[in-house]
Amino acid sequence: MAASFLVENTKATDQPLIEQLLDIAFGIDRRVKTSYRLREGSQPASDLSLVVRDADVGVAGAISFWPLVIGKTGTPALLLGPLVVHPERQNLCVGLALMQEGLARAKTRGHKFVILVGDAPYYARVGFQKLPEGRLLLPGPVDPDRFLFVELAEGALADIEGLVLPPHRYAEISARDQEKWKPVFRPITRQI
Predict the structure, then answer these.
(1) What range defines the domain where residue 27 resides?
(2) DSSP string, 80-141
(3) For 72, what's the count of Cα atoms within 13 Å in the CB-facing half-sphere?
């Protein structure tokens, strides 16, 4: 049975603790991953950066969702991540509580589609599944077995395909330029 946690909006004072926790959990080289390319120059989606606080460790866990735009049609979507749980609070369902609350809030705010790059069995607990290969293109290498999605509205995946970018980058690239990405995209077998 999962414990109950109070999930709250992230405060500016939480950011240094979250960054420290991310460095501990994922290393300082985490910023070179493709998922970080999707966050560069953007801000998390409003009211979708969440934490669980703990009197003993401070921030016990944190999650953020980031706005994305997909394909020539400019379909809006979200990127989940990073999700991090303090090493002393792992296996207590802190991450599950953060994902459930974050996805519920995203759905309430009208978001229909969420992607991430991560461990399929872990994220399957909240409905994520492997994205059909070649459907979406990221601006960098990604292991296709770790490229996951969840629909917050039934059938949301049906009309989604193409290059995934943060909104500011999408605005800079025309539909014709997006087509240039397709021939050079080659999925790899591991996350770099």
Answers:
(1) 7-184
(2) EEEEEE-GGGTTTTHHHHHHHHHHHHHHHTT--EEEEES-HHHHGGGT-EEPPTTSEE-SS-
(3) 8
Does any domain span residue 119? yes
pTM to 2 decimals? 0.87
Using the structure block, give the residue that is written with the tokens 């293109």.
137
Query: How far is Cα 146 from Cα 11, in angstroms, rounded to an integer?
Result: 30
In a domain, 110, yes or no: yes
What CATH number does the domain containing 133 carry? 3.40.630.30
Instruction: Please list the rounded mean pLDDT of every run of 10 residues in the chain (192 residues).
Output: 79 92 85 84 92 93 97 94 94 96 98 97 98 93 96 95 92 65 49 46
Distance CA 76, CA 95 (A): 25
* Angstrom distance (rounded) from CA 100 to CA 91: 16
Say how many domains are in the chain: 1
